[in-house]
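Dear all,

This email documents one entry for the complex benchmark we are building for the journal club exercise. For each entry we list the sequence lines for every component of the assembly. Then comes the predicted three-dimensional structure of the complex as a token string, followed by one or two observations. Please use this as the template for your own entries, and keep the labels exactly as they appear.
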Amino acid sequence: MVVSTRLQDYDGPILECRNLSISYFTRAGEIPAVVDFNLTLNKGDSVGLVGESGCGKSTVAMAIMQYLGNNGGIVGGEVIYKGIDLASLSREELRQLRGNEIAMIYQEPMAALNPSMRLGQQLMEVPLCHEEITEKEAYERAVEILAAVNLPDPERVMNSYPHQISGGQQQRVVIAMALLSNPSLLLLDEPTTALDVTVEAGIVELIGQIAERFDTSMIYISHNLGLILATCDRVNVMYSGVVVEHGTVEEVFDHMRHPYTKGLFSCIPLPGADKTAHPLVPIRGQLPLPHERPVGCYFAPRCDFFQEGVCDRAIERGTIPMATVDDRSGHEVRCLRWQEIDWESYRPEGLSGESVTSGEVVLSVREMRKYYELADNSLVALIRGKRVRYVKANERISFDARECETVAIVGESGCGKSTFAKVLMGLETASDGEVVFKDQEIGKLPVQKRSPAQIGSMQMIFQNPFDTLNPSHTVGAQLARVIKKFGVETDKDKIQERVIQLLDLVKLPREFARRRPRQLSGGQKQRVGIARAFAGNPAMVVADEPVSALDVSVQAAITGLLMEIQRSYRTTLLFISHDLSLVRYLADRVVVMYLGQIMEQGTTDEVFSPPYHPYTEALLSAVPIADTSIEKKRIILEGNLPSVMNPPRGCPFHTRCPRKIGRICEAEPPPFVEAAPGHVILCHIPMDELRRVDPVFVQTAKDKSAAE
Amino acid sequence: MSIFIVRRLGTMALTMIVVSLLLFLLLEINVEGVAIKVLGPYTSEEQRNIWLEQHGYFRPVYIRYFEWLGHFITGNFGESVRFKTAVSDVLWPRLGNTGILGLATMMVVVPLSLALGVLAGMREGSRLDRVISVTSIITTSVPEFASAVLLSAVFVFYLDLLPGTSSMSDGFSLVQLVLPVMVLVLYDFGYVTRMTRASMAEVMMTHYIRTAILKGLPYKTVIMRHALRNALIAPFTVIMLQINWLLSGVIVVEFFFAYKGFGALLLEASLNQDIFLIEACAMIAVFVAVTTQTLADLGYTYLNPRIRFA
Amino acid sequence: MTDIAAPVPAREPTLLRLLKGILLLRESTVGMIGAGLVLFWVLMAIFADLIAPFPPNATIYPLAMPGTTVPEIGTFWLGTDHIGRDILSRIIHGSRQVLLYAPLATFCAYMVGIPMGLAAGYRRGMTDDVLSFIANVILSFPVLVLYIIIIATIGASAANIVIAVTFASAPGIFRIVRGLVLDLRNREYVFAAETRGETPWRIMLIEILPNARGPLIVDACLRVGYVIITIGVLGFLGLGLPPPDPDWGGMINETRQMAMTFPHMTVFPCIAISSLVLGFNLLADGLREVSLRD
């Protein structure tokens, strides 16, 4: 109890990090993870740490917790919490601080909760171990706090095991657990990354309320600039272990000074961006590995403003110092040339964006259904003799895709988009309806019965770059196999030639043919994945979340590459994604799915502006936007995503719909209504009413540079 | 859950039936062979045929199988050729002796290996962990017959502390139990220890343990309340399955120390082609093994709330 | 595998990669000790004729204690047994038996277990149900009971021991392979192979199996160790290789009645078999340690 009494009457900054340097020690030697990190956090403040994977943002959080594992350690500087140097504390004192003064919220709520303990017990033990309190008081406190994080039926949650509640609810429990002892500092490590976008919106709103209601200071760690804007006052942009820019969110988002920050913003598709007018600008190269950081400025090899002799000069402290841009707002930048860079005349070469005209219909899906049979093993079913239930994975799917067109399929987990891709690829067969591809019915044709030409003309790009290539075979061998399999070439030398061509196509060095996948970075693997898909000169490519597992700066480059190849081959691209910003940027047409059904479809402009389907509207408003000039409608969906096993009757969305009009939504399946030719909405609400809805995004004429 | 139990018991019954069928076919399909084994090799064909006729061996195989199975289930295992009495008269006392040996072994193995495994897995890579891990590799590398020889050499030959045989001819003797149990423990504890260690180490790496530590719980609470409960689920299964392994070890140990147990009986029956005794012993052994496997499965399900409340 | 690798000219030779893998083992002390023990016995087995001071089956000088030097005959470093055979020579020659049959039997078990595991894990459904049930039935026998019944029924010979080991070990291998395949089959590269219409066996053998090799190599090392014990136990119970050729388990069995008076006759074969098993177990542990680091 010594520490807490020392902390009672403190009124300085909650947390200060001074010249903090953290390293990991491996057999290969010391690997600096974070260098020269400075931070001052006042009471009630929330600071964001934003950066790509491996930039050290989570390491900072763990260092504040003084929990770096066996091989990590603070090698310089100090962490000062309410005036106390945390390094000076004994283990017992540190323990009293953790969970009580400083609490943490984690990326994967399911993993963060003990699977074999009831949630109530896990919650109650926090106050029980930090305060003199009875079990009963602890129980009441836990119930109270569960209600405060908007969990319905807290008593039931208390009595549940983690796997019995949904991911969003789990994260609310983790947040409740962190708030139980009323901490002064809350560390949030990517708290919404594992969640669906509509669930994320709810959590983000909750986090916003916490700061006000509990007067807690927060450090919010994320790779998503839009989330930082929604939750933080100040932001630290990190790159490869160092903070490259620091300031208020407005300063950094509207008047960024560091070329990396600028690059990051040019990489993400903002609502103002458009593939023809304002193309994305990828950052070239890739993140340096921690032990391969360049001398001088770490960003130098990827920077357009790199100057020899300035940016690559060896510096004693490892990296270049921070420079103050604006003293009053505390805007700082780690760049030697920030004053010399002329942003006004900087016109980077973006991804080529000439628009193309679409051609004939390539794929036509009509009333396609895919039901799975599910053996019902419950006792009730056994008694009733109804052993088989149907899971309606896809219901009445109808749409067309034309040559050279990009059609995006959008939806959250469980919406049936992956099942649909499987039917297209012939790994599953449709239960009903038609799937006509290049004038041939393929819906009931499993892949084994398709001709090599048929298979080769429809290929797929996968989501997970670490999983998409077989680690046992070389890149060249894997590409060669595809070429041979589709009968593009049969001669050995010709195949080899084609492998080289494909590597050129995806802009990879030719010697990569001899490499094994583990020698490639995520982005490079995904390039090989694209090359593999295009090996058989396909008429259509299905891309299942092809960039969602990649870092932001790599995403833009891969997206650009994909679009470029697609245009030059005049391939139809079926782009499956949950990232609406990206979809808006690259798709010509959008199909919005929910629980196996298409709720809305139309051209991108039609879908992204009123009239909306209420689900589309909610989905759009849930997308975090990293643009201070955009004002967004706030729609938070209530309730959980229903299970596909047991979908609601009537309109599938009625359980969460904020615009539900009454009985009819629960009782009858909604009709298809055409808002415009080709723009179809599946809803009971009269079209006139839907047309009167305000747009989700409004661009405020606040600042000229914002939309750039 | 109830469906799961019913299904698991059904699988168990099915396994037993298949095993019995295999055994029956392996040992009794050749009726001539049965007669030779029962009556001895120096009998005339006529004698054998009379015996076979008397005992209904010329009926179709399936009828004989069901009759045999019926007898078996009701506890009528037939007559032992070697012991010249009903199989059950020999079998049950022997099984009891082996039960004592097994129980004594488990009573040492379970607490010892759980404690060592938890200690080792708690801090993976520590000196204690390495000592425990290497020790358990070494002890599992010494086969039972080798450790029996080595331990006898030390405790019987050099130190003259313990008796070299455990025939218990003058009634039950605890001293005679020491060496057999020691041999079994030595060979078995390493495996359970390593499994416990692996399970514990895995749990210690999980995020929920990190959560528990960063909640500010005392280290003891983290281990006792959060880690152990999850870490001991896997070893439970291992221990139950270990009973199956123990049955193998028991054969060697009983043979070596002349302990009058079930393992030695099975070996004796096999070496003497005492087919009804072999059948009975094998069925009992499999029954014990299958039962413990079923218990292991059910227990695993019960201990794991993610399955229990699925 | 050659046909997909062929178009790429400068592929790293398999031998070189194997060598690199062995060099990786250097980082594990435990693994190096294990490899050393195994290598020691392998060399003993290969050069048994050169190393062994006496012929293994010849009666030379009865009941010599270890270290006894007999003029004009030589030194019996580990003594002689009850019928006067040199124990050292018998142990050295005995390593041949063990190191021939144990790996051979393990290999046979893998040849049976791998295809079954691949099929069950990849196809699932009925195939899996049937194969898993068969495996469970065999596994429900206590291992030694199974061996004793098989050997007692079909007789003790080298070939029968290999058959018995294959029969008894294949289900265990089946389970491991099946588990690995169930995990690997959900990888996207398998999905990719399916979408380009590869045949199931090609997917199993070329896309899946190579990625399961790490755990399987570790398991194989452990299994060889266990098979050595099994062969030893069978020899010890008198169900092993027929005499007079030296077999470690058999040596212990033959002399154990005299263990109280002449412990050296049984103790040294025990040490031999334990050290070889220990070698394989340590090697497996080292390999696992190294593979986890990667």
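Observations: The interface with chain A takes residues 4-8, 10-11, 27, 187-189, 191-192, 194-198, 206-207, 210-211, 213 of chain C (CB under 8 Å). DSSP finds 13 helices and two strands in chain C.
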